[in-house]
Design a protein that fits this description.
Blueprint (H helix, E strand, L loop, with lengths): L4 H7 L8 E2 L3 E5 L7 E7 L11 H20 L6 E4 L3 H4 L8 E5 L7
Antiparallel strand pairs: 1-2, 2-3, 3-5, 4-5
The protein binds guanosine-5'-monophosphate and zinc ion (ZN).
The site of zinc ion has 6 residues, from helix 1.
Length: about 110
């Protein structure tokens, strides 16, 4: 948790505009967008990745996911979006605090 950039953003130690916030999650824009619109949905609880998720954290992630369809309309993603979670080195996970990428705002390339 120390030196976790997302914990610092959540705590307000690093300023970052919030496009949504409730008691369990914030939504910010990615610093280096990989699409016209690129948001990060970040649960406020710190845990690194899926493989470390306990039951309570899994329920938080479930509720975060359930908020995405409604949020997407408000975030300019009504035309569709891609939902990505990078897990571990092979996926290129760089921040060890679980987060959900939302990409859209344009026609996305196949991958
Ligand atoms: P990962 O590769 O771990 O799935 O995604 C981490 C993402 O966080 C990257 O796309 C990176 O651009 C973004 N990121 C890293 N540091 C910051 C930051 O300080 N602010 C914001 N808004 N995004 C960040
Ligand atoms: Zn963290």
């Amino acid at each position: 948790m120390e030196n976790c950039v997302f914990c610092k953003i959540i705590a307000g130690e690093i300023p970052s505009p919030r496009y949504f916030e409730d008691e369990e999650m914030i939504v910010i824009k990615d610093l280096e967008p990989k699409a016209k619109l690129h948001y990060l949905c970040i649960p406020k609880v710190h845990f690194a990745r899926f493989s470390e998720m306990n039951e309570e954290q899994a329920n938080i992630v479930k509720r975060c996911c359930q908020k995405i369809p409604n949020l997407a309309h408000k975030l300019g993603l009504a035309g569709g979006y891609r939902v990505i979670v990078n897990q571990g080195d092979d996926a290129g996970q760089t921040v060890q605090h679980l987060h959900i990428h939302l990409l859209g705002g344009e026609k996305l390339k196949d991958f």
